[in-house]
Each structure stands twice: as C-alpha cells, then as structure tokens.
Specification:
homotrimer; 454 residues; mainly alpha; Ammonium transporter fold; three-stranded mixed β-sheet; 17 helices; globular; membrane (chains A, B, C); NH4_transpt_AmtB-like_dom (chains A, B, C); transmembrane helix (chains A, B, C); cell membrane (chains A, B, C)
Chain lengths: 454, 454, 454
C-alpha cells in the first residue's frame, strides 16, 4: 500500500498548472505500476478459480462443475460490466461538446477503479490473515465494479468541469472511502445492501455533490450555452439509459444469495423499474405547457426505481411493494430535476451536470430507509424460520438480532453512507487548493477529445 | 380487474381533443395505480423466488441451488429484455424526425405492457384457484416481455402516426387480446409455440396492420418527405437490428424445455438467421440498378428467419431445415418490402411505417405453418419415444394425440392468431372514433421529443 | 464439399469488371444453396441438443438438465456473438463515409462465415468417421464465431477498399485456412489456445495485412481526406470498442474447461484489459503536444490486453502477471498506431485502415509467446498434479509431455499461425489478378450504402 500512497501524494498535491501531457501519463504509469506491485504481493485466485479446484471439488463433495460460483454469477457480472462501461459511459454522452469526454474518461477511471477496488475491498473484507493474501473470484470482480460505480456516479456531478487527472484522484479517493464505508455498514453494522442503495448510490451521489460544491466557479454561467445537448447526442444517451435500465435486475441480484435470493431480487427490481417509467413520463409531461416530454427525465428519472430497490429488493417486499417504490421514485426524481437541481445551482452554488442528486443521492437514501422499514417488518410467518435467518444472515454473533433491530441498523447504515459522501467529498478541497481554479468547461469544441491543462 | 377496466374505459372513450398534457399523465397515473392494486390482490412470488425455497428444496430433494429455474432462464431473459427495449426501440429510430419517439414511446408502452401482461397471463395460465393468487418467477417475466412484444410490433405499423395515449390504449387492448389468444392456442388447442411465430409475431403484425387501416388518413402523402431517414438515424437503427438478430436464439429458446430443448432451439434459430442474411442481401442488391443495398432491407428482412423459426425451432427440424427456412424468409421478406408495402399503401390504404407486414405478419404466419408441417412429420424413430412425448407434451389428456393431429392443431392455431390480430385491430375503431382524426405525423421537427394533442 | 468448391471457383475467378448487381446476388445464392446441401449431408445435432437427451442423461447418470453443456457455455456464447456482430461491426463505423459499409458488410460476411466454419471445423475436428456426420452443439457455435473472427479481423485491414464480393471470397478462403491452421496447432501440435491469440488474432491480423499488401494502389493517397472520422462516427465506434472490451473475458473463457478453467480465464482477461486502458491513455496523451487523447488509440489499443491474453489466460499466469501483460500491450499497441502504421504505409505500401497490425497481429503474436513462456513455467507445485494434467490435457498420447516441451510447441504454433496468415493472404493475388484494380475507396458519399462495381 506504501507505493500507492506515494503515488497518491505525488499527483494529488502537485502544483495546479501542471500540463496534462505530463501529469496524465505520469499518473497512469505510476499508479498502474503500483497496482502491479500490490497485486503481486496480495492477490491470488480463490479455490474456485485455481487449478486445485479438481481437488477442492473432491474434498468438498461437489458433484458437478456447474456448482462453481462462476455459473451462479457470471451472467450477472457481465450485465453489471455493461452497466459500468456502456451504461454510465453513454449516459454521459448527452452534452453536445463532451461525448468523447463522457464515455472516454468513464472508461479510463473505471479501469483504474476496479483494480484499486479489488485491493481495498480485499483488505477490508476477504484478507486471509493466515497467508496475508486476498483470494479473488467472480464475486470479487462484481464487487470491484460496484465499488467503482460510486466514483462514476460522482463523475456525473462533475461532468465537463474536471480534468482526467482530477478524475483519477476523485476515483482513488472515492474507492478508498467506499471500502471503509462499506466495511462499517456491511461488516460492523451487519446491514444487508446487495444492490447498494446505501453504499453505492447514496454515497456516490453525495460524494459527487460535495466535490461539485468545492469546485464551484462563479463564471460558469458564461459557458451555460455549452451545457446542452443536440438531437443525436441525446439518442446516444438513451443507449446508456436503456442498458442501465434493462440490466438493473442483474445489478441488484448479482451478489445476493444463491437460489431464491437472486431470483426474488431480479423480480422486484424489474417491477420497480417498470412502474418508475410511467410516473416519470407523467410528471415530465405535466411539467410542460404543451405536454412535451423532456429527454432529461426520460434518460434519468426512469432509473430511480432501480436505485431505490438496491437494499430492499432481496427482502420479501412483495411485488406490489416493488411497484409502489417505483411509483414514488419516478415522481420524486422527476420533481428533483424540475425544482431541486435549479435550486442547488442558484442558492447552494452546486452545479450538478447529470443531476446525480435526483437519480442517485436521494433515491439511494430513500432506498436505504425503505430497506430499513422492510427489514423491520420482516417476520417468521412471512419468511419462514430458515428463510429469515438466511435472508438477514442472523448467524454467528448476530444470531440473536431481531428484524426490528436490523431495521434500526439499516437506517443507521444509510446515515453513515451520507456522512461519508458529504464529508469525503468536502475534504477533497484540502489537499488540492488548485481544484477550484480549473479553467476549462466546454470552452471549445471537444472534437479532438482534447483535455487542456488543469 | 374491475379497477383496470374502469381506467380502461375512462381513457379509451375520452373526447378526442383532450390535451396530451392532461391525458398522458392521467393515463399513466391511473393505470399504474390500478396495477399496484391488482398486484396487491393477485401477485405473489413463486416457490423458487420465495424465502421458503430453503424448505421447498428439502421437501423436493433438490440438491443444489443451481437447479432453481432462475439459472436455467435468467441469461435468456436478459437477452429478451434487451431485444424488447433496445432491439425494438432502436429499430424504430430510423426516422430522421422521430428517433426520440421511436425509442421513448417504445420504452413507455413496454414498461406498462409487462405489468399488465403479468396479470393477464397470470389469470389465464397460472392462477392458483385454491388461493386465488398468481405466483410469478423468471419464466413469468419472460412471458410478460413476449406478450408485450405483440403490441410493440403493432407500434411498428403505427410509428409516427399516433399519440402516446393512443399507444397506451393499443398496448392495453393488445396485451388483453394476446392473453386470450395465447390461452386458446397453447392451452385449448395444445399447440407448441415457444418462440411465438404464431402468438407473438403473426398476431402482432396483423393487429398493427388492422389498426393502421382503421387509422388511414388521406393527406398523409403530404408529409411523405418526412417519412425518411438520415445517415446517422440509419446507423442507430442498425443497433436495434443487430441486438434483435444476435439475441433471437435466446428469444426462441427462453421458455423451451430445460436441457436439449433450449439447446436445439438456439442452434436452429442461429442457423436460420445466418442464412436469411445472405438471401436478403442478394434480393436487395438485385432490386437496384446499381446493385446498391437498401438499408431498409438490411435492417429488417435479415430478421425474418428468426420470426419464422419461432414455432419449429424446438422441434427436430434439422440444421439444414433451419437453413432452408432462413433462405426462403430472406427472399419473401425482401420482396415484401419491394412490392407488398407499396401495394398495401396504394390500394388497400394501409400505411405500414416499419413494414411489419413483411417482417412479422407474413414470416410469423409462415412460421406457424412450418411448425405445423414439422410437427406432423415427427416420428418416434427420429425423436425417440420419450423425446416425442416431452417435445410435444403428449401427457395428461393429450397423451393419445399423434404428431399428425398435432400438426393440424398447430395450423389451426396459426389461423386463430391471424383472426385475433385482424379482428382485434379492426375493433379498435369502435370505441374511439377520434382515432382517425389524429392530425400529427412528422409535421414538425421532433427535436424536443414533443407530442401534440391527439 | 464439391458444391462449395465449385461455387468458390466460379466467383473467385470471375472477370474483374462484373457488375456487383449480378455478382453479389449470385455469390449469396449459390454459396447459401451449397451450405444447405452440405449441411444436409453432414450436420446433425449432438446428443445434448437432440431429443434423445432424455435417454442419454439416464445412460450417463446425469442427474440434472443443468449439466447440459448449454448452461455452461450459452451466456458466454451470446457475449461472443455480440462481439462478432456489434463489436467488430461498430468498431468499423468510424469512417465518416463508410459506417454502413463497416457494420453492414461485417454482418454479411460473418453470417456466411459461421456456416462455412461449422462445416470446415467439423470436418477437421469433430467428424464422426463411423457415421460420416458432424454433430454440433453450443460449443460448435462458439467455435464458428471464433473462426469467422479471423476473417473479420482481416476485413479491418481492407475496410473501404474492397467490394462485398471480394469480402465473401476473403471470408471463404480465410475460414478454410483457419480450419487447417487450427487443426495443425490444436490437434497436431497439441497447443492450448482457448482465446485464440495465435489461431484467431495473429492469423487474422497477418492474413489481412498480406491481402492489403497485395491490394496496394498507388493513387490511394488522393482519397486520403476521406479516410477520416467525424464526431458522431467516432462515438459509434466507441460502442464497438466497449462491447469488445467488456465481453472479452467471455471470449477468452467461452471454450475453456468447465469450472476453474472458465473462472480463471475470465479473471485474467478482465485484469489485463483494465491495465491496458491506463497505459494506452498514457502513451496517447504523451504523443501529442497538448496532451490531447487520440480517439484511434482509445478505440483500439485499449483492447490489445485481451488479444494478448488469448492463450495464457487459462493458465496460472497469476493476477499480477495479467496486469503486466496488459501494461505492456497498451504501450506496444499505441506505439504501433503512432509509428508502425505510418511506416507500413509509407515504406512497405501496406494500407491498414483499422490498424489490425497493432491490435491483432502483434499482440496476437506476443500473446502466443506469452502463452509459451507461461506453459513452460508451469509446475506441479503451482498447478497440482491433477490440475496440471487437466489444464494442458496431458492425456492419451500426450501424457508424457512436460510443461517445457509444451512451451516449445506453443511457440511453434505461433509461428505456424504467422506463416498461414502471411502466405495465405499473399496467395490471394494468384487467382484474382483483378484485385489490385478495385477502383473505389471512399470516392463518394456512401449515404445509400452503395457498392460500386469491382
């Protein structure tokens, strides 16, 4: 970790007018070398990905290769992977002068983020203290994608305002914070949060908003005319929207329990998303004199149902419960785009380019509380004795926890994620005072995918 | 169902000049609330998605979580989901002024359609009369996507001519008709139709054509110049084409029998599609003086092989049989675009924007008959004794049915689907006399995704 | 095979000024009919896709349908399918006047290629000599997609310079060469090459370069201004890049051993790709005065890590080993785009439109050697006794082979693939002397997807 901290300090604190031609390659090279060294020291294949699987199978009485975790999770993993790179990437192509930046920088930081996430999450969650190694498998890859998603959400609030080097720093710091926050919420508080309403969306959203607040530049309105879309860039953004929307059931179910856990989570998410589309469209149409629909709402608010089901989807929230969640989220998120985003910009000086406040921060927070309520309402009559234990992992030192207590801890977990996001993002100001002087936002055609010096 | 019927009547019969700003939100809200109430009354998780799975597993001697139906069908489900939202959606982006409308309204009506389909199909197929509940799992989600596909196909014939409220009505009515028709074909006639040549494509195609006939407006030729594509909108449409084409093996195999059923269906569909591309290209090139290819044929006719294999793909049609089906369909479908679509518009006054006649109606109908012939030709020597029974479900009250009889019933099923499509679509005229007065088709730049009053 | 050889000769040797309106339909029809006849004679379902699966299961003590190979490989197959049609197709849309040609001709030749590949690979690898039949299943479909990929790679070097008929010939010849080369490398030399660094990428890359050399036309620089991209065509190309990048772990793991084999391969490929992105970006930024990134590098060099892991990914290369491979490939590939492509064009008269030299040929070759080194370094202490045997298939007549020997054979295999690519491509000159006189390259707007006479 020492190497990495070194790299971190080097580039985080460098003078503000470093030319990007030097700083970007330097960051990429040094950090990637650090990753290689750290992987060499820490990361190994787990027993399901190692050639010793043949022997492991025999010793554990596993009768068929199909019981390898790979076959339970790999299809979902690939769906999640598509969401991270095509979903988030293309959702950010809507700006007429920044399509390359949206999809390209997303590609760069996600590629770095997953590597750093494998290390950070490994140290906190799966480090084998007897060997000092982290053993990875397909579930680790999914978790790494999830962890990176937090930073990509933050990028949504910063789109067009930061240099790639700054984005790398935001990602390094974001993944680190994520791993700590996740450790507190999942391990210490023993919350359930398979789809990450709390740990991913709520954290990522507030993290991005806090950085955006730190970054505020008063002359930004001069470039306001560049903060717009053209017809084709909005169609590109629909590619992102649809791949996020379609694969969200995989996102939420990717790491839930084998069997009924994954099955139920997928159904709940599917229903919440379907319901969310109708109310988003309704509010969008009502908000305009002519009843026209606003593409911003169609591209974003329709996804809020999936965000809000990240925690509760694996519980017995019931199919109609899922529809109700989607129904409310479509309304809340669209109202957010109509009223809260302009308010944040005007009065709180927070510029939120993609509106992550309405798509991730608030629905994620509400999703955390919905999860808390659903958990608190759980009962043996609905879940069955064994079902209750396996759903909430009431085992080991948590075997005496009641659903009511669990609900309380879930709510506490949500507050932890908000705090980490806000404080973590605000802290970004301290080490890099140059941050607020970044001088390029849409100030030129980006037709060469150019990035100017920060 | 009462609530829904109420909502149905309210909006279906409302005066024709309602402003879309009122009618669209009203339809979305009222119908979505109706869905929530009906789901509350009727829909529950099935035993594979419920927390009682732990106990179910024990009582049914299931040794591993991997035998949960989720793992058999979820990857195919996600492929089907991509076809419904990205495939159908982007296929309809080709119009230069209606890309948002194509992908956006498709998104809206599919999101409503799947919910209503879960209820309608549940009532007809899986209602547990002892509890009065419908138990859903991943197969239900796939079926709901299928059911919605019928209405999306109909949208293809209406693209650019109807308001979103009318589309919602078309979907409500279409899904209802679909469930009835499917009940007659699959349950009463005991047909096999896993990929839905009959129940989805043939029905959906004729349903759309019949509505388009009802909608005919004589002045439409004045906006003819807007019924065109531009270079980039045609590239967007290729995204739709390719995702439909690639995932069609999943579409046809998603709900076939576990094991060899899914395996064989995927292979047959893959081969028919490959073959179809070559003959589509050949006819397209022959049809133009310079040998240029027409993007309309590349985008559509190449898919006809998948449509036509919807019924027969799960039978032992043999690999070369699949190639022959694709070969013929590429020719028939491309000829349809060259000669039948202009004929329909000129003489029968049916405007078919996307050419669903050539891509869905005719290949679907032929697919039904191909299925009938393949079924009639089945024999114990080819299928094996047990294979024949399991492929055609000759069990229970159908245990004495012979392949020959089955073939007859398959053919009858195809006729039922045509009848439902034509009559159902034509009936759309009765309750809504305002339908024919819809006055907007491409009459303005759609750059704001606007919808004008219907 | 006689029919096909006939069709081959007919169109391969036809006079050079044949109008494409005649030649393209003729090639499509005759070759497709040949496929149908050959499939009728040779191709049948294998026991896992046949209705006799019920009996096969009983006789082989298979307890559950989930152990059908379909469930091990179908999700990966669909990912590979997306790479072939959307990945390769959209990666070639970047030319401003040739987006239709890129995606459309890719669609055409891949559809033909997979059929011919099923036959060629069947004859060489899976022909049952007792019945004279080839039995196909999902693994055959994956292999057919792989085999076709070789020709699609070659198309990348020829993009915009050849007619569709010539592309069909290139594919027919390419698939044939591929099957022979693959037979030598995998069966005779007993190499392991699951992801095809050698057999697919190295072969395909050099095959395309050799054809491009044969095709060289001195006046090409006159159309240089058309060999460029516009903003939106570059965004379309990113769709191709990302789907290739995301699904590469599926590509490499699609046909590796069940269980740990697929699991480990996916992890290694994922890591190499992530690492490759950072170094590609670094070199790209360093290469320009202003630190701007070049979209050509982002679209292509980021994929080199996946290419280079095609052979070694299934071995115990270790996670950090995978990162190192990606690290080096990003550098090498980007340098290739900066220096080698211009050199090839200026001094060797090889025009390589998509830069397949840097993305496929060199990384594929290096991947072959990386595989050789990794294999040679294998030991029982790392792999375990049974693991070593199953990973390298040291069974039957190869049961005495040592890892060191295996490494030597792997290296030899790489040389075979280079030789086949170069010689095979250069031979394309002989039968078709008209090749070099093809007169159209971007010489008109391609807005009608037109192809002019060859």
């Amino acid at each position: 970790m020492g190497n990495c901290a070194q790299g971190f300090k080097d580039f985080f604190c460098r003078p503000k007018n470093t030319n990007v031609r030097v700083s970007l390659p330097a960051v990429c090279f040094v950090w990637q070398i650090a990753m290689i060294i750290l992987f060499g020291v820490f990361i190994r294949y787990n027993e399901e990905a190692d050639t010793h699987w043949v022997e492991h199978k025999k010793s554990h009485n596993i009768t068929s290769d199909i019981e390898n975790d790979f076959y339970f999770r790999y299809p979902s993993f690939q769906d999640v992977h598509v969401m991270i790179f095509v979903g988030f990437g293309f959702l950010m192509t809507f700006l007429k002068r920044y399509s390359f930046g949206g999809v390209g920088f997303n590609f760069l930081i996600a590629s770095f983020g997953v590597q750093w996430a494998l290390l950070m999450q490994g140290w906190f969650h799966t480090l084998d203290h007897s060997t000092g190694k982290i053993y990875i498998g397909v579930e680790s890859l999914i978790n790494a994608d999830f962890c990176t998603a937090g930073s990509l959400i933050a990028y949504g609030a910063l789109l067009g305002k930061v240099s790639p080097v700054q984005l790398m720093v935001v990602t390094l710091f974001g993944v680190t914070l994520f791993a700590v926050e996740e450790y507190i919420i999942l391990s210490l508080l023993h919350c359930r949060d398979a789809g990450g309403s709390m740990v991913i969306h709520c954290f990522g959203g507030y993290y991005g908003l806090a950085i955006s607040w730190v970054l505020y530049r008063p002359k930004l309105h001069l470039s306001q005319r560049l903060n717009g879309s053209v017809y084709h860039s909005d169609v590109f953004a629909m590619i992102g929207t649809l791949f996020l929307w379609m694969f969200w059931p995989s996102f939420n179910s990717a790491i839930t329990d084998h069997g009924d856990g994954q099955h139920r989570t997928a159904i709940n998410t599917y229903l919440a998303l379907a319901s969310c589309v109708l109310t988003s469209v309704a509010i969008s149409s009502m908000s305009q004199k002519t009843g026209k629909l606003d593409m911003v709402h169609i591209q974003n608010a329709t996804l809020a149902g999936g965000v809000a089901m990240g925690t509760a989807a694996e519980f017995m929230i019931t199919p109609y419960g899922a529809l109700i969640v989607g129904f409310c989220m479509g309304i809340i998120s669209t109202f957010g785009y109509l009223f809260v985003t302009p308010f944040l910009e005007k009065y709180l000086k927070i510029q939120d380019t993609c509106g992550v406040h309405n798509l991730h921060a608030v629905p994620g927070m509400l999703g955390g509380f919905i999860g808390a309520i659903t958990a608190a309402a759980a009962s043996e009559s609905v879940y069955g004795k064994e079902g209750l234990i396996s759903t909430f992992d009431f085992e080991g030192s948590f075997k005496d926890r009641t659903p009511g207590t669990q609900g309380g801890f879930q709510a506490a977990g949500t507050c932890v994620s908000i705090a980490f996001g806000l404080v973590g993002g605000a802290l970004m100001r301290i080490p890099n005072t140059g941050f607020v002087n970044v001088s390029f936002l849409f100030n030129r055609s980006e037709s060469n995918f150019s990035v100017e010096q920060s």
